[in-house]
Amino acid sequence: MKKKSKKIHRVSIIMGSDSDLPVMKAAAEALEELEISFEMHIISAHRTPVEMAKFAESARKRGVQVIIAGAGGAAHLPGMVAAHTELPVIGVPVPIGHLQGQDALLSIVQMPRGVPVATVAIGNAFNAGILAAQIIGAGGKKPDEKVLDLLLKYKQGLRKMVLSKKIGRPAKSERKKRTR
């Protein structure tokens, strides 16, 4: 009888609430594009703090290499997870409420010395996925060449897209409007 092997997820994508999912699914899309396995969970720093701590403390033993944590408002999840793990944590400020993520951005980026959380732009979970791939690709004793090659291909595609957009010089009538 063959033993069924457990799939090891290299990245954990976590969020405090299912309302964060529309933003956080972009991290999953980036990781899928780069062929990096991941898991997604709803874990709240405020509503399930014991489970959050256990999750963060066990992540490395489960084979996780990077944790992406999305949160809005007070946005304690990324920092609290970082306090409970030795793995890199990437915080995604989720835009909610009157401040549209500015409060979350400040909460995530202003971590105390010794508890770092890499932070991406408000609502930009896709970049969190790319950053996780870069960490995995460059990390360890031997870089993961496959991941680095896929990242290179992705960046070459970005370059081609930007270079293909020809704006040209504005018409003379447009230049006159700008100087008035």
Describe this protein's structure:
Strands 2-1-3-4-5 form a five-stranded parallel β-sheet, with helices on both faces. The chain has 180 residues and is of the alpha/beta class. Helix 1 packs parallel to helix 5 and helix 2 packs across helix 3 (77-83). 44% of the residues lie in helices and 13% in strands. It has helices at 21-33, 49-58, 77-83, 102-109, 125-138, 145-164, 172-179; strands spanning 11-15, 38-42, 66-71, 89-93, 118-119.
Quaternary state of this entry equals single chain
* CATH fold topology: Rossmann fold
- The Cα radius of gyration reads 19 Å
Please report the first level of CATH classification, the CATH class.
Alpha Beta
**Strand residue content:** 5-15%
Structural class: alpha/beta
Architecture (CATH level 2) name? 3-Layer(aba) Sandwich
Which H/E pattern describes the elements?
EHEHEHEHEHHH
Quote the distance from N terminus to C terminus: 81 Å
What proportion of the residues is helical, as a percent range? 40-55%
The domain count comes to 1
The stretches of 5 or more residues where confidence is low (pLDDT under 50) are 1-5
Mean pLDDT: 89
Number of strands: 5
Biggest sheet character:
5 strands, parallel
Present the secondary structure layout:
Blueprint: E1 11-15, H1 21-33, E2 38-42, H2 49-58, E3 66-71, H3 77-83, E4 89-93, H4 102-109, E5 118-119, H5 125-138, H6 145-164, H7 172-179
Parallel strand pairs: 1-2, 1-3, 3-4, 4-5
Helix pairs in contact: 1-5, 2-3, 5-6
